Amino acid sequence: MSNIVAIVGRPNVGKSTLYNRLIGERTAIIDNISGVTRDRLYGTSDWNGKTFTVIDTGGFVTGSSDVFETEIRRQVKIAIDEASIILFMVDVTTGITDLDEEVARMLRRTDKPSFLVVNKVDNHQRLLDANEFWSLGFERTYFLSSITGSGTGELLDEVAENLHVEQPLEEDIPKFAIVGQPNVGKSSLTNALLDEERNIVTDIAGTTRDSIHSKYNKFGKTFYLIDTAGLRKKAKVFEDLEFYSVIRAIRAVEQADVCIILLDAQAGIQAQDMSIFQLAVRRKKGVVIAINKWDLVEKETMTSKRFEENILQKLAPFNDVPLVFTSAVTKQRIHKVMETALDVYERRRSKIKTSKLNEFMLGVIERNPPPSHRGKFIKIKYITQLPTPSPTFAFFCNYPDHLKGNYRNFLENQLRTEFNFSGVPIAIVFKKK
Fold first, then answer.
1. pTM score, two decimals?
2. Which of the given ranges, 142-156, 197-211, 300-314, has the highest pLDDT on average?
3. Which is nearest to 247 in space by CA: 117, 78, 130, 393?
4. Which residue did the predictor score with more confidence, 138 or 219?
């Protein structure tokens, strides 16, 4: 399970301010992907070598002043069910309210680490007033000011101390994340590959709430399969629990070497699938597109060639991606999906000899030199592959800042044509010679 720290409490106690501070300067905020996330709702934080996801449950509130007590209780219940640690926030300026006492009663019944965070304690008088909150009965009680940041260090020290250490997966074994919208057949594909009912398969979207790691070891092939909860369109995220599933799915993409994006053959590629694809490409993960339920498509109306052309057109400019037509139910070409993913994995790890790289690319550059910039001729002298997890190529030249994006795309296409990087995002950087 992921390390999730949820901030709960009634409105206007400063949850969002604390959230912003926790995911502030020392953190990387998870991308705001259109249709996948809700604005300013979650991010990652790093403290004392521990990384965790911070949730601002205030984002779940549909109104500001017109919030029902049942809504707060529901948020707390979700936090108790899904979070690793709960930060219960109260406001020293208003004292203990009835709603604070009810939330405290709920949290005292859980085994999850729960910290009472008394906010807005920014002077001596308020520090004295804050002592009344000890009556709520929390052993871990912290007085702080989320605006100034005073007291947050001690809180974070304690949070980091209580986070579990995630067991890393074996480094040398390929890790494949099966991602896609709900109900496209991700769990069915995993079960078909493993020949066992490892994951519950139903027709209800969102059955898989957590990422499940399964080790596959058959026919001389070993890899991890990460089956994730489906990523859904923003307008259709009715269940708050599904929001936590989105976080886990994004974390699964982070953990994976190759993302197998599963599409529904009857629905085609949709905006949400494009968001998943773009996330994988930005993270420089290998990509395989698997079109599931192909057995249900009328072949007279849609051939695989037409379907493929339609998808690749939508994926442009990065459309050098392998497609596999499959059916998890009939097991049609399910092993082809994994063989393709293994091929992409190997291409993503491939290292091209510097001599071979320069022999080919310098010839290409000589025949098609970069355009001059303000009368200055740009000369590329040397190319090498950098030691990064995914292919990154450094082009050393005299004016690296003046090379245009279209010439970068030209160089990338030449590399793809010659060295076969199908399914692998590659990066090109220009450096001063």
1. 0.64
2. 142-156
3. 78
4. 138
